[in-house]
Amino acid sequence: MESRMIGLCQGHELRRIRHGQGSAGAYPRPGYRGLYGDPAWTARLDESRAPSPWHIDWNDPADASKGFTVTANKDAKGRLGVWFPNRINAGKATVTIGGTATPIEKAGLLTNDFLLLRELELKKGEKAVVEMK
Fold it and tell me: With a threshold of 0.70, does the pTM exceed it?
């Protein structure tokens, strides 16, 4: 079973508990706040220690609906979530890898403020082009 951590804090105090280790201490006490983490999002604070496998170039940084290009910094396979810099009204999108276009309905999920690719596999330097309509 994968070990996931939950952070619980009250004031400046931080306590950590592990899922699946009995019920004692597995539930926060009144006054504690849980910190939620999205499993599809990999947070990276210091990229010098663990660089991101993806690099995103926006076609127009002021308008996400113009699309973007994902370039692999290394051989990578996994989910990719991209938050848009602004809300969009695009209803359809395609992901093109190596000349093969795939509709977003088969590759992931498109909303008005983010796009999720369920499984993206690129070799180092390979690109995935996302176009929205």
Answer: no
